Amino acid sequence: MLRTEDCGLPAELAATVFGVGRTTIAAPDSARRRGHEPDRDDGRTPAHAVRKLPFADWLPEQRWYAGRSRTPFSVTCAASTSLDDVLDLVLVDVEYTDGSSELYQVMVASGGEREVEHRRLATIGAAGGRTGYDALYDSDAAHRLLALVEAGRPVGDLVFEPEPGARFPGTAAPRLFDSEQSNTSVIFGDEAILKVFRRVSTGIHPDIELNRVLARAGNPHVAKLLGSFETTIAGEPCPLGMVTEYAADSTEGWAMATAAARDLFAGVSGPDNFASESYRLGEAVARVHADLATAMGSDPAPFPLVAVLARLHATANEVAEIKPHVAAIEERFRVLTGEPVTVQRVHGDLHLGQVLRTPANWLLIDFEGEPGGPLYERRLPDSPLRDVAAMLRSYEYASYQLLGDQDDESLAALAQDWADRNRAAFCDGYAQASGVDPRVTDALLAAYELDKAVYEAAYEARHRPGWLRIPLRSITHLVAA
Ligand SMILES: Nc1ncnc2c1ncn2[C@@H]1O[C@H](COP(=O)(O)OP(=O)(O)O)[C@@H](O)[C@H]1O
Ligand SMILES: O=P(O)(O)O[C@H]1O[C@H](CO)[C@@H](O[C@H]2O[C@H](CO)[C@@H](O)[C@H](O)[C@H]2O)[C@H](O)[C@H]1O
């Protein structure tokens, strides 16, 4: 049975009560142990009402809500900070009946009739005589949030931090980024993109951390970080969002690659068929790796046998189609026991949807690692081959998704040909820029590809069962090679 609570906290757990920014924060499970609901409302801000908004009904409608396959047990407002009279930053804790939990960030604009886009989706509901909206749909509120990052002043427990020398857009009109994402982004004119993290947790956010390091290293293959903001939970930093320069006139690598592969299928492709782009992309990834290694170091380590086996067995328990391949995959992993690799900070979830082609060059975005895992895990050093293998997998996706559920061998041969050509071009570019050809350690590279394909099998089984056959096909090929 779903239980919705509001989020007043006992005094000893409440973090702070500030001037404009009144913050109420504590570990969510502590919040539920409270015996009373202290009323902190001073009449100036609607925080009391904000905490009573019907988040339990609204959250499951949001595309970034990750709890659809689970049953919520309680939905609790764990923290709220009033940014001004009509804008509150709220952290909503969702606990599920299976014992798992998530903390979601919602920026709430409240008041009477507001000018908001997508009113039905944006309306959280009413409490205390006021209606609460998702503020990211509200252009005024989005501007106020951006202004807070630019000003860099603390509000309650919230810390807003502009990067040194960052130039923020002035009055550029904001628009909500309209696509499937795990976070929510607002674009300001052609100048900046504000990404508000939805599922938040304590730790250092790799997307902010690595973008900062690469911007300071002058790396040309990232969108320049302009600022970020975070809060504190139980003494730990909890990153909430970031602003980067917007790459106007850019196209996602996935759109370009799939268009090129489609041309080949239609018999209208030129001789290059994306290969020169793949070469330049390989160079860009190598330069990002080089700057990350220089700035953050690298170390020798053994091939991560325990981790890849753990993922394999967990996936086999979840995805029946993996079971027949387990022994063969395991063998591929076990021959690499003790095999030395070099580890450093890497992207961690690289694919053609995470790269943008600007008129000038390729940019890598979204350095947040594999979504779902805890932040500390996503920041662990890993082999650069992890990223290379992930890109190689993406070329197979780009061509094989065009087959749909057809088993046409001549089409499959075309798909493989396109993928092989672009995979080779990517590795050539990577080798040229790094001085190390990833194909030299072919068994290692294949093992990282296998590990990624196993991850993808779990991802597809959960999110896109119709695409499960793409990683399964690759697994069959990789273990047969
Ligand atoms: N700096 C940028 N310039 C232009 N478009 C961007 C930029 N950053 C992100 N995008 C667009 O927003 C989409 C989602 O961004 P991403 O960082 O991957 O969000 P999420 O973490 O929610 O997946 C990208 O696929 C890209 O199309
Ligand atoms: O972009 P996210 O960080 O959310 O990454 C997740 O979703 C990706 C799909 O959007 C998924 O990528 C897989 O599908 C891509 C095509 O849609 C393909 O290019 C990738 O190679 C493939 O792994 C990614 O694995 C997942 O973590």
From TrEMBL:
EC number: 2.7.1.175
Biased composition (Basic and acidic residues): 30-45
Assigned keywords, A-Z: ATP-binding, Carbohydrate metabolism, Glycogen biosynthesis, Glycogen metabolism, Kinase, Nucleotide-binding, Transferase
InterPro entries linked: Kinase-like_dom_sf (IPR011009), Mak_N_cap (IPR040999)
Region spans: Disordered: 26-47
Annotated ranges, domain Maltokinase N-terminal cap: 58-138
Top EC class, one word: transferase
Catalytic activity: D-maltose + ATP = alpha-maltose 1-phosphate + ADP + H(+)
Pathway: Glycan biosynthesis; glycogen biosynthesis
Keyword field contains Transmembrane helix: no
Subunit structure: Monomer.
Family statement: Belongs to the aminoglycoside phosphotransferase family.
The protein, known as: Maltokinase
